[in-house]
Amino acid sequence: MDLRSGPEVSLEGPGPLTSVPEVTVHHHTLFAEGGRHTDVDADRALPWQERDADDDLRVTGFYYGYLRERPDSVVSALRVMALDDGAAIVHCAAGKDRTGVLCALALSVAGATREAIVEDYVATGERLERVLARLRASATYRDDLDSRPADDHRPRARYIEQFLGVLDDRFGGPLPWLEANGWTEADNAALRSRLRD
């Protein structure tokens, strides 16, 4: 499950798994398409470069923006996870923001506790330095990463907690948001079966 934008895929390449015949790559961007790199409004590799807003609100806003801008991609990606054969690998550029949101929703469907979802999200930070070193080697991501300290990119529990809180407040939780966007009880059953077995 490749959550990068079309321009990111074009600039960075489709990735090494495309050469493995047994692997099917499903591309479901979580950004509105049309910008030079990844985001229509920001027109740069990572859309969260503006530093004016409070960090918690800024990150939560981008996370909620994935759902607002691309509910079709969110639901389609979760359906692929639920219905396709084999294991699912979910990734974006760093594997923490877009990937973190999609995995948080999948874990919510599976019935994971909020604490477990937050722990899963925060675990991305364990390899953050290596992830950032890889991304800094790319002109697509380097300018954004070099514009602020590495610690600014760290996934913090409060980011995903606040994002999930927004879904609680506005929709009654992740599942009602999914249902409002075409997710069905059959989808729930299929994804729960895949993630619990």
Structural description of this entry:
This protein has one domain (6-196): Protein tyrosine phosphatase superfamily (Protein-Tyrosine Phosphatase, Chain A), CATH 3.90.190. With 197 residues, the protein is mainly α. The radius of gyration is 16 Å and the shape is globular. Helix 5 (114-122) crosses helix 8 and helix 8 (157-171) crosses helix 9 (174-180). It is built from ten helices and no strands. Residues 37-52 have low confidence and may be disordered. It has helices at 6-12, 55-69, 71-83, 98-110, 114-122, 128-136, 139-146, 157-171, 174-180, 185-196. It comes from Nonomuraea recticatena. Residues 72-107 form the Tyrosine specific protein phosphatases domain. Residues 1-20 are annotated as: Disordered. Pfam families: Y_phosphatase3. This is Tyrosine specific protein phosphatases domain-containing protein.
Protein topology:
Blueprint (H helix, E strand, L loop, with lengths): L5 H7 L42 H15 L1 H13 L14 H13 L3 H9 L5 H9 L2 H8 L10 H15 L2 H7 L4 H12 L1
Helix pairs in contact: 2-8, 3-10, 4-5, 4-10, 5-8, 8-9
Shape: globular
At CATH's second level, what is the architecture? Alpha-Beta Complex
User: How large is the count of helical segments?
Assistant: 10
The unreliable regions are 37-52
CATH class annotation: Alpha Beta
The CATH homology group name: Protein tyrosine phosphatase superfamily
CATH topology category name: Protein-Tyrosine Phosphatase, Chain A
Structural class: mainly alpha
Count of β-strands: 0
Pfam families: Y_phosphatase3
Protein name: Tyrosine specific protein phosphatases domain-containing protein
Domain Tyrosine specific protein phosphatases: 72-107
Region (Disordered): 1-20
